[in-house]
Here is the input.
Amino acid sequence: MDRVTKVIITSFLTNIFLSIIQILAGIFGKAGAIVADGIHSLSDTATDIFALIGNKISRKPADYKHPLGHGKAEYITCFFISLVVLGMGFLVIYNAIFDHREIPNVYVALITILTIFFKYILSQFLLHKGKEYQSNILIASGSESFSDVLSSVVVLISVVLGQLGHIYPIFTYADAAAMLIVGFFILRIGFKLLKENISNLLDSSVTDPEYIDKVKNIINNYLEIKNIDNLIIIKEGPFYKMDIEVSMDKNMKLIDSHNIVEKIENDIKNFDNRVKHIIIHTNPSEK
Here is the structure.
């Protein structure tokens, strides 16, 4: 079991536990907002299932039909994650508008405080591991988990305000207002993930200047390289592929230029094991 899968399983089990606690507390405590928040947490479990499948497929080795590997499976998985998130958002908003409102029990506030704490820890854990492992799936799950934190804060406020409904009937609608806000939180994250992963499916390039400079320095370590004419780094799920053009002495023997290009490829792959495919084209130089 790879390290990304272990993190996803941890997230899956945590979200299952939190969603069950929230939904039960919301049903018995007459708090529609915390039920909605629990459904939001439950949607995380669905995204974790997609994440497990996508991570496994994206790391499959290259084959005859997929010579560059299966890295884009991660983007397809994240695309489905975004659709699940959007669906949950619309469901929460629908229920906020049409469900009957009641004043929630005050003990629901304690449950909400505990879920806020655990959700925040989980979101930071996922984001940290996503950046450490360079995993878009973990970053996507972490972003969604952080939206859970914000939505739970809104739920907590609605529960507190809802207690005033015994005195001022207008506060009876605090629960519905919180559900609407939670729904829009979910939609915002869903649309963001959808936009990002459509971009990645269209071969999004690496634009980090520090990373690009490091790759250029590796190439320029060879004195035979007169100029770097082009350097494109494309994301392929958890992996990278590179298309490079360099200028070399036009009178250099083919075998010599081949050996230099091969050394550059090995140096780049040793620098970053995410680079799985490199094409280096040589141009003749007059220098």
In short: The two ends are 52 Å apart (CA to CA). The chain has eight helices and three strands. The helical segments are 3-28, 32-58, 73-98, 108-133, 136-162, 174-201, 209-220, 254-271. The chain has two domains: 3-201, 209-285.
